[in-house]
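pasting for ref
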Amino acid sequence: MKKVNLKDIAEYVGVSTALVSYVLNGQAVEKQVNKSTAERIIKAAQKFNYQTNQIAKSLKTQKTHTIGLVVADINFRFSTGITKSIEEEAKKNNYTVIYGSSNEDAEKFAKLINVFVNRRVDGLILVPTEGSENEIEVLQRSGIPFVLVDRHFPEIQCNYISLDNYKAAYNATQYLIDKGHRRIAFVNYRTTLFHLLERNKGYADALKQNNINFEEFWLQQIDSVGENDVTTCIELLMKAPMPCDAIFFATDILAINGLKYLSNKKINVPEQISVLSFDESESFDLFYTPITFSRQPLMEMGCLAVNNLMELMNGSDHIKQISLEAKIISGASCREQ
């Protein structure tokens, strides 16, 4: 069966090919096409199951109506949540999102960006990896519109949507202090990523401003997401001369591995120790005690990222740097001392 083109529809309706093109490309109002004529063209296109030639269209308009999205790890709840939000908002703007996962690898992050650029995406939304500053600076010089999400580099002036990680960690630590805890441990990754370092600062400052001595021992930093690493640091915390009375985990993955250890050792939460996670996880529903966590506004973050990128793709050169706030969701895992 012959593939229907614009000329076929034009001859069927009895109008020019240009008029059909205007209507099917969403320019009917702009080009002042008669409403009834536009309706006839659309019905004809539907009748013949007309499919737009996206390649030809993109060559003509210099737009592909696609956005490239790079997340850190698609298995993370943050990644799935932010991807869903970005896809929904992009769809409202008639854009399709294609995405890949860097798996926290700077080289893979760079390769994904190159793939998307070669596919002629109109813009990029990126969750950068540790050590990807050079790639971001190269993007800036290329003039390709992009927005960073979740993470950014203070020394690079560019558009980003992130969480106020300092305030979120400060408030979470304050929450535990208000419950009467004084020996609060914080488990985080050993990293140079700014957003995680801000969580360290927020935690330490909350202790200091409540006249609680900050002990470096209470800040446990591990090198990987492995369960064994988390197990080792919790064993150190629990076997100390003065064991901690609360553990604050910097991510949901750390919290999940920590809860596994506590459960295996039959250490009761919250009777023996309180637990607070920076992020939420569906896995928390499987634990016998509802977990207290800081919820990131993923839907708002994704919407703002898309809208910010749209402005850039439409020619704006205004730099927007937006920091959002987390909300503490109280569970039974933190008890009054």
